UniProtKB/TrEMBL annotation:
Family: Belongs to the short-chain dehydrogenases/reductases (SDR) family.
The keyword Oxidoreductase appears for this protein: yes
Family annotation (PANTHER family): DEHYDROGENASES, SHORT CHAIN, SHORT-CHAIN TYPE DEHYDROGENASE_REDUCTASE BLR2146-RELATED
Classification lineage: Bacteria, Bacillati, Actinomycetota, Actinomycetes, Mycobacteriales
Cross-referenced SUPFAM superfamilies: NAD(P)-binding Rossmann-fold domains
UniProt protein name: 3-oxoacyl-ACP reductase FabG
Enzyme class, spelled out: oxidoreductase
Coiled coil: none
EC numbers for this chain: 1.1.1.100
Amino acid sequence: MFDLTDHVAIVTGGASGIGRGIAASLSEAGASVIIADVNLEHATATAKELGASAIHVDVTDRTSVQEMYRHVVATHGGFDIVCSNAGVFPNCPLAEMTDEQWEAMFAINTHGTFKVVQEALPYLQERRYGRIVITTSITGSHTGFPGWAHYGASKSAQQGFMRSAALEVARDGITINSVLPGNILTEGLKAQGQEYLDQMTRSVPLHRLGTPRDIGNAAAFLASEEAGFITGQTLIIDGGQLLPETPEAILPPRD
Ligand code: NAI
């Protein structure tokens, strides 16, 4: 439906998982994609597979984010799509959580998004056009899970940030929206263990975990010109996981 030819997109945390799925969908829609990741080796390998470019960025470091944008402008003449996707989700029981663990979670997930979005604004405002898509989560704003008090807080904070930011930049032709993945089979999710994966699969009415491309396709839509009247919104992509009022409301798969 939509064509992203002549658009330039930056995807943070694009080397693997959901970010890789977003980069693949944007690339397939015709955009020039820059995969920006703290792991340059993985970013370079992924970029090669997708026909994209790779750059190092640490979203916790403002100077690194500034350098990323300067480099993209120098090499691609500018950009108009930013996907703030880099994030982590280590599990830790609340009773054992240290200040350092709490702060490290926010440093990447929440403060990283703040820096990535804020530093993009001067470039997008100059163009009077921009599409920003933030990867948040159903965890925090809609659900909870033991061990993810810090993660849920960091992810719902991104959504609070997005709504006010969307209002501030609307007059510049810039939209900011969030994709809220449910359980998406990535390296990060696999690290939660097989028991977690089985438990989550049972809780999805569509009877499967999501794929990175499920999120990528939604992000590519929100990054398109055609989505220009949508801003400050959250799009849940979870296979219906949030819907059932009881576990019995999930009908068994057909034979
Ligand atoms: P992943 O671990 O597979 O990929 C995360 C990527 O971010 C990696 O390439 C990593 O190198 C990069 N990264 C980490 N710290 C960084 C930093 N400081 N600067 C730049 N890049 C950095 O994780 P996954 O599953 O793809 O998660 C991506 C996003 O999706 C995260 O924001 C996560 O919270 C969110 N999410 C994931 C869900 C899932 O089921 N996998 C569910 C809901 C949300």
